[in-house]
Amino acid sequence: NDSIIPLTLVGTYHPVKNDELLAVLSDKKETRIIWDLSVKTPKEIILQRENIDTIQEILLDSGSKYTEMNEDGSEVLFSDDEKIVRYHQNGFFDYRLRQLNGPKGAVEEAFEKAVAFIEARRKKIIYETDINLRSIESKENYYVFTFDYLFDDMDLEVLDEGTRTIGPVITISANRERVLDVKWYIKTLEYNDYHNYYNLNFYDFYENQLVSEPQFGGQIQDITIKYLYSENGMRAEPYWMVETDQKFYLKMDPEVE
Question: How remote is the C-alpha of 41 from its chain's centroid?
Fold first, then answer.
């Protein structure tokens, strides 16, 4: 139902098929300029004690009460009878209802609630970072929607430095009535002051980088490029994303000038 998707949200969910390789498969060298990105928390919601009221106004509602900030100032807790919310210094917004119940409904109804939750907060912050629907998963009593940021036709995902895994910038669980749980890295994206030239040719990548990777093995199902940034970092760089019987990532090597 396209009518529930606001124009400010980019919705392009295309499950990857085994025969779809997104890298360049010809023997012709394919070079592209890719900018290094600056990843920042919007200034309106930077976590500071004097900013608590503004954060509450933008991200929550009047019913949620400020409870406490931890000792080092890296996290603030809000709560009420219905939900518990934690907001972190790195812009991570963790919202959870105390009771995860209610009628599941149709996926379109739940998606409408998820989109409305995002858009209500985006409008208050007034930032134009595009969002791309990544996946939809049906659970017993609700749906889980994941989203990536989109910049220069490349998805941006979050790198967990501790586990060395990557994940979406937004994960929302919702049913037909309401949003139940949200995990959201709230960030603005813009060009840094430099870029590099990158060779996108698959065969060059295979011979120069992929074939020597210990994780590589089995049939290649998908190869594409995405931006990754550390959950506590302020910079996003391009990576090759490779899927065989497992998924792994390799930092792209720029062309030598």
Answer: 13
